[in-house]
Amino acid sequence: MIPPVLLNLRTLAELASHGMELDFERLHLSGVSPITDALAARVPFGNLGAETFVIHENGPKQRARGVIQARVRKNRPEADITFIAPALPYDADAVTIWYRLLAGATRGLGGLGCQRLYAAVPAENGAEEVFRQAGFVSFTREQIFFLAAPNARAAAHTNGIASGLTMRRMRKRDAWNVWRLYTAITPRPVQSAEARLTSDDAPKLDDWWENLGGTNYLLERDETLLGLVRISRGRLATWVRFHLTPQTAAVLDQIVQETIALIAQTRTRPIYVAARDYEGGIAAALAAVGFTPRLERSHMVKHTTVRVRETATWMKPVLETSKIPVIHTTQHAREK
Fold first, then answer.
1. What is the pTM of this model?
2. Using CB atoms within 10 A of its CB, is residue 118 exposed (0-12), middle (13-18) or buried (19+)?
3. What is the rounded average pLDDT of the residues 135-162?
4. What structural domains and CATH numbers belong to the chain?
5. Does the pLDDT of residue 44 top 50, yes or no?
6. Is 77 helix (H, G, I), strand (E, B) or coil?
7. Which among 15, 166, 190, 335 counts the fewest CB atoms within 10 Å?
């Protein structure tokens, strides 16, 4: 395992053409490539690139066998695995190469201060099992839905969501309420895996919703927050996430249509919606306006540090004993 490679871009390009992209969102929004990520990682004052690690057969001067990339999250001791090569069907030794890549990335990123590594792995082609054998643990599954273009009825939806329910852009002062929304609708095992139960500080805007990027819209009724819709617009497509409370179940169709109408105001691009397994109620509303399932993936995490319990050493006070000097007298002195 060697540090990020810039001088060997030809080798990286050869491996990249036979790899597997794991940053599905960024790939379909902007069409990035592993080479541009490797170069962007060297740009100061930015968080656009990815750390790149390459393994060779018998030393750096030999033929490269695999490459892995990971993007460090902003203001968090965490990183996301974004690319790995070769793909499993391409090389007969791909499984062994993946084990070496994942182990080396864990060491390398741990040395950079990362405590947790995340990966969104496709659930069908055997990749999930390889990651599991490498120490990653699945904490939730996610379905990706796709819409090539919104239909005219959904795009022209202007009737509002429902009586008393409003949709507005998120402001800085909404941070605390958004944090409460996350803790209310997200299962505790998922919060624990995403390291949201260990923070003693008040939530900040660089927490989970800011690392995901995009523009956030709040759904409110009588000044009570009932949901958040995150819309990320890219050059090639639009990506949407719904974070909704059970109180919105009766108006899911209207929420989806209102979101599509909001997106259609600026541009007509393909739309992707990511829905986790504990957000399954949105699937029917998406199907009603033409969305189709595109991909199922598993969100996985691996800790680079392990919490160890050690017996505390206690200092016990000890009474010091001092010898009392003995005065010896002679017989002559006693007789006096």
1. 0.81
2. buried
3. 78
4. 9-115 (3.40.630), 145-296 (3.40.630.30)
5. yes
6. coil
7. 335
